[in-house]
Write a structure and sequence with these properties.
With about 140 residues, the chain is of the alpha/beta class. The chain is built from five helices and four strands, in the order E-H-E-H-E-E-H-H-H. A four-stranded mixed β-sheet has the order 1-2-4-3, with helices on both faces.
């Protein structure tokens, strides 16, 4: 089950379409869907989590906590809407596109993809692009 929670003024206007897409992404990776919670927040909220739980004193767009057991993926994905908006401007893409990239990024981590090394990051970006294309096909 994919849940959307809001700790800021932001709300998704297409929750059902996003949830359906993310479920399809999970299936496409031969995984089963557990409980995935997306928490939309602002920079301050996510910064506190970054400092408290990861000991990183930086702003970030997404932090995911992975509770996957075996083939069933589960976790909490915290998304700073402010960072996503800034990143969309920096990367010259729409807010909607950047938001979907961040949402699928969390799921891909749960599927086992990493982004710490250069090679891992290249694979992660490739998977993001592949999965973003799935959203357009389904709509």
């Amino acid at each position: 089950m994919i849940n959307f929670n809001y700790e800021s003024d932001f709300t998704l206007d297409n929750e059902e379409a996003i949830a359906t897409w993310l479920s399809a992404v999970i299936v496409s990776e031969n995984k089963s869907e557990g409980e995935i919670n997306y928490i939309f927040c602002d920079d301050e909220y996510l910064h506190k989590i970054n400092v408290e739980y990861l000991d990183h004193d930086t702003l970030t767009d997404v932090i995911s906590f992975d509770y996957t057991m075996g083939n069933e993926i589960s976790g909490d994905v915290f998304v700073s809407v402010e960072r996503v908006l800034d990143n969309s401007k920096d990367y010259k893409t729409s807010f909607d596109e950047e938001l979907k990239r961040v949402l699928v990024h969390g799921v891909l981590h749960y599927c086992g993809y990493k982004d710490k090394s250069e090679a891992d990051e290249i694979l992660m970006r490739s998977k993001e692009e592949e999965k973003l294309t799935m959203f357009h096909v389904e709509q």
